[in-house]
Structures are given as structure tokens and as C-alpha cells.
Amino acid sequence: MSPPPIQVRPWGLTPGQEAELLRALRFRHFKWDTFVSGGQTILPESMVVDEALHREVVATVEALHQALLRFEARVVANPQALEQLGIPRPLHPLLLRERDHGLHCARYDLFPTEDGRLMVSEFNEDVPGGFNEAQGIPDLLGDPGAGLRWEAGIRTAFQAAFRPFDSVAFLYATAYSEDLQHMLILERWLQEAGHSTTLGSPAHLEKGWRGPRILGTPVDAVFRFYPGEWMPNLPNFATWARVGPSLPMMNPLRRLISQSKTMFALWQEDDTLDPADRALVERHCPRTLRFHPSLVPRLMDEKEAWVLKRAFGRMGDAVVMGNLATPREWEDTLREAARKPGEWCAQERFTVVPLTFSGGPLYPTLGAFLLNGRFAGYYSRAAPKPFLTHEALYVGTLVQTS
Fold first, then answer.
1. HEC profile of the chain
2. pTM score of the predicted model
3. Could you report the per-residue pLDDT of 94-116, keeping only the tens digit for each?
4. Which of 13, 63, 255, 277 has its CA 20 to 30 A from that of 218?
């Protein structure tokens, strides 16, 4: 009998070695929240995927990326579609005028399901995170031994993407330390590659006479780690409206099209999808319906089979799984969705296959980074329930080569 395509392998460290590794992750890779609420956020184990599954992951995420770009190109000039996606109206003119400089960073989380598919419930296209662990854990654990390898190319790919730009600004939500830790590791990578860098908020963008400036410093490009739907609330949004469309930025605001959870419904309704894209969507994306109050009786009767999602939300926020919700929680969410139907969708639930870790069964996802459309390494997680939130645990990913 052949081994399953995903296995679990312990790090094999002593308690002292494990503690030292986590300390190095905090102080050398800026991963400060290795412990939260008294619990460790990083599993001392790795998932091992076989070579065939790894190749499937790479082919899937790269094909999905290209299909999403084709969908984006069709809807970006359609105000009705942008409205249906829940994208704030003040952003619509920016999306129309925005130049795409090819700077793209995304993470797609693939769930292994009972029927053998890899399913994607949403696309992390706007402000994906996880850089610290994705590179730090492989660096610190080192050579995994014969027949195994890390796929940890995020640092090299990130440096290559910004090679044409001398001065790069990292713009993030400065109230959040967990966002800062992401910016510090990315900043270090670019500084190691010889770039000058600036940290700031999107609120610090100014129009200088020679070009854009952040905190008085001229910049050639920016990395945005600030949710796109928040942008209209910035005090300098008028400056963004003037300067933003021509500013080389990872990621451009048009990535909100594929970040929106309601895009699945519009994508599946798109009559212009070519056969290859339609087959890709049907294989990897759950059936999704734009919410309408008329759906409430059906969703009440079929509670266990559906998930309610707001168009924009972060780390499991505004996502309610019918099989995990109490009847009261489900009714309250349906009531909220019925009040603002354009902001919600209903997605058919799929069944994730659990893996057995040392502490018991957990539900995994294979997180795949893409840099400028190419696979750039893993950021995988596992959770006690088949629902990933900010409380999910990071788990390293190895590829079995022989």
C-alpha cells in the first residue's frame, strides 16, 4: 500500500532546542507572537507532502492566478460588478485608472477534501501574511535530511520582484504590532538586497514635485499591507486618488476583485469563462451564491451544508459555518445578511480530511505563496476545527522527494 500524500513528521528536537528555535524566530525573524493566550502558535511538527501532490499544488495555484487575472480584466471596468463584489464606490475610479506593474503577492490556502480535491474557499490577494514563519522555520531547522526538502523561496522571490526599484516603502496598519512584524522581515530582505526602505502608514503618502513621498522620503515603489477596503477612510485619500493609480505597488487595489468572497459567485455566473477556466473553478472552488433574502428559508433548512461570508473580512471574521454555529448564531447571521444582502454570500461547505498530530487530529490547509504569479513556498496551518481563523497553528511543510 502506498503512503498517504500527506504525513506528519515531528521536529525531533529536545525541549531546550525547541525553546531556543522559537526564541530565534522571535528575535531574528520578528515572529513575536509564538505564544498567544498561553498556547504555542507553531506546531513542533511538519507536514510532509509527496512530490506528486506538491506538483499538483504548484500547478493549481499558478493556474488559478492566471484565471483570476482574466476574470479581473473582464470586471474591472464594470461598475455593477464592482458593486456586487462589495468594493467601496470611492475606489472604483482608482481601479479603472490603476496601472498594473506586475507586482503581485498572494497566498492561496488549499484544503484537502474527502473526495480527493484541493479546495480554495477564498483568495488572500490583498494583504496576505505569514512571511516570518514561511522563511524562518526552514532557515532555523535547516537540512531536513535525505529524501526531503523545504520549499521556502519567498525571500528570494520577494527580492527579485522589487529588483527594478531602488527605494521601497512598506505601508501598513500601524496600530497593529502583528502587522509590523511582517513589515520588518520584508524590510530586512530588501535591505539585504541593497534597497533603501521606509516604514509608514498609507496616511503618510504625499505628492512631491518629483514623485511620491512617504514621511518626506521619495519612493519608487510600495508594498501595501493595509486592507484595500479601508483606503477610502484615509485622511489623504484625495492624494491616493491622484498618485495611487500610477504608483508601482504590491498589491494594486484592483486585487480587491479576487479578495472579495462574493467573487466566487460572479465567477461561476460568468458566461464568458472558457472551458479550461470553468473546469478549474468547478474542481477547486465551492459553489457560491450571492445572498438574497429569498434564500433564507433554504439556508435555514440546509444549515449544515452552507457557510455565510461577508465580502470582506480578515482571519475568519464575518464567516459563519452552519455546522459549527448554534441555531441562534445562524439566525442572527441570516438576519444581518438580509439587512445588507449585497455584502454577503452563501458558500457550499466541503469536508476537510483531518491529519493526526502528536496532540490529536487537526484540520490542515496547504498555504501556497505566489510572487508575481509563480509559486514561492508554503505557509501551511492546522486547526482543531475545519475553520481557519487567526488562532490556527502554523505547521512547516516538507516535500518528500524519494
1. CCCCCEEEEECCCCHHHHHHHHHHHHHHCCCCCCEECCEECEEEEEEEEEHHHHHHHHHHHHHHHHHHHHHHHHHCCCHHHHHHCCCCHHHHHHHHHCCCCCCCEEEEEEEEECCCCEECCCEECCCCCCHHHHHHHHHHHCCCCCCEEECCCHHHHHHHHCCCCCEEEEEECCCCHHHHHHHHHHHHHHHHCCCEEEEECHHHEEECCCCEEECCEECCEEEEECCHHHHHHCCCHHHHHHHHHHCCEECCHHHHHHHCCCHHHHHHHCCCCCHHHHHHHHHHCCCEEECCHHHHHHHHHCHHHEEEEECCCCCCCCEEECCCCCHHHHHHHHHHHHHCHHHEEEEECCCECCEEECCEEEEEEEEEEEECCEEEEECEEEECCCCCCCCCEEEEEEEECC
2. 0.94
3. 999 999 899 999 999 999 999 99
4. 255
